[in-house]
Amino acid sequence: MVVVLVSFQLTDSTTLQYPNYFPSTVYNFEGNPLSNSKIELGRALFYDPILSADSSISCASCHSPYNAFSHTDHELSHGINDEIGNRNAPALFNLAWQKSFMWDGAVNHLDVQALAPISHPKEMGESITQVVIKLQHSKLYPKLFKQAYGDTSISGEKLLKAISQFQLTLTSTESKYDEVKKGTSKFTKQERSGYTLFKNNCNSCHKEPLFSTYEFAYNGLELDPSLKDYGRWGITKEKKDSLQFKIPSLRNLSYSYPYMHDGRFRKLNEVLNHYTGDINETPLISNELTKPIVLTPNEKNDLIAFLLTLNDSTFIYNTKNKFPKLLLLKNKG
Length: 333
What we know:
globular, two-stranded antiparallel sheet, Cytochrome Bc1 Complex, Chain D, domain 2, 34% helix
């Protein structure tokens, strides 16, 4: 029941596997062929605070594997020197199907996405040049780069592509919904009802099986007066993009709260209450939301029951995604 995208002849090569009901990936694997050694290098880099200016913050500090690689402790991201960011840290999974990144789509390729948090003064506050120097002086990383690339030379391009490789392996495809699609499980009566409600009210923006189109939309949230975040408009400067943010996937919602770009909602009921009554109706509103969504309390419960079938505990507890033991040896050394 899987589709293998590309096969490589290298001994160390591997492939991305996913269910046959998933669409084709959009990431160009020919420019960065997967290999086990590069994935492990990227995994080490993802969990190592050496990427930050004061070695206190790693990628995993805001993207915890137990939270679907999001951050539930804070509404907004936290960085070095206890700096508070402007947005909620989004969940990281199924990235091979996404063509733009960040809530506003400021980055259009996964291979350079890590530059944004590394260099952001409220996140990791470091330059890629300094990261390379630190890695070159490490006892661990020249060996890992040699295993991955054939020599001990370290460059910004190599380390960014290695981080991409690890992130590309973060696939969430084993929820109850997926089991139903594969014919190994069945929805309960309430879940079936919720699935129907989802298809009638939510599927246009949160298209299955990825449960997002990964496009940008304004969903009627009132502007936070303290953050004054206008989303995609900050990138394009086009009026039509004002207050638009990237549509997140609905997979793993039990693990990835709080919700929205600014983390303003902590419960799914709050999210549903927004879409069924609290929408700020303006000409900028997404076309999909111009028609009111009307749900009874029981229907809201049914819809939530279905959304919970998108939780993927296999993904959350996958040991291949967790903190690598080799970093423990590095720290002891």
